[in-house]
């Protein structure tokens, strides 16, 4: 999977050096990257949705790296790496929930640590599934899953109005998915993603795609309570 990286600094020479180092390290790690340079922080913010990983210089004249990092906190997909000459500022970086902090001058080893850690996080966000129509194995984002259904010793995953197959059983999925967040087992054979549920009644979870997932009779009250708790939690974020 390609990693889209944005690098932002007011010094053109540093931008060129940083991009060169990132590309060199990515090649060594066999990672595919796309790197885009920005010399102005506000310009980066306009295009933030194009990128996943952000290298920001803290000390820029127009807007600081801290300012950009604060704005990016609203973007759940963004991972911020702050770069600076001043090691003392590392303590200020913690409140912006940054992914990493790198001192200048940039070392290839530090870039390697960032890319390796980020790639590991990406792996956790995806599961390998099979699409019968395409006759191909694909990487599927967990957040795109609508529901998981177990039947005939197989597991079917509904995501983006497509069905996928997986060799794991329901026990595997219960361990794999973060049931403390959006996912919940509503039936012995079903796990739903509350983020994809439009409403819940006594018998079904009505999904945003129009499908209905059955709720076990003994789980009705618990499912409704858990869905309401999920909605309240999202409203308070």
From TrEMBL:
Q: Which InterPro entries does this one have?
A: CheY-like_superfamily, LytR-like, LytTR_DNA-bd_dom, Sig_transdc_resp-reg_receiver
* Pfam families noted in UniProt: LytTR (PF04397), Response_reg (PF00072)
In this chain the HTH LytTR-type domain maps to 135-229
> Taking every annotated instance into account, which residue ranges of this chain make up the domain Response regulatory?
4-119
Which UniProt key words apply to this protein? Phosphoprotein
The family database entries (Gene3D superfamilies) matched by this protein are listed as: 3.40.50.2300, LytTr DNA-binding domain
Q: Which Gene Ontology molecular function entries are recorded, alphabetically?
A: DNA binding; phosphorelay response regulator activity
PTM sites of type 4-aspartylphosphate: 57
Q: Does the keyword Protein biosynthesis apply?
A: no
Q: Which superkingdom does the taxonomy of this entry point to? A: Bacteria
Protein name, entry field: Response regulator
Organism, scientific name = Pseudolactococcus raffinolactis
- Highest lineage ranks of the organism? Bacteria, Bacillati, Bacillota, Bacilli, Lactobacillales
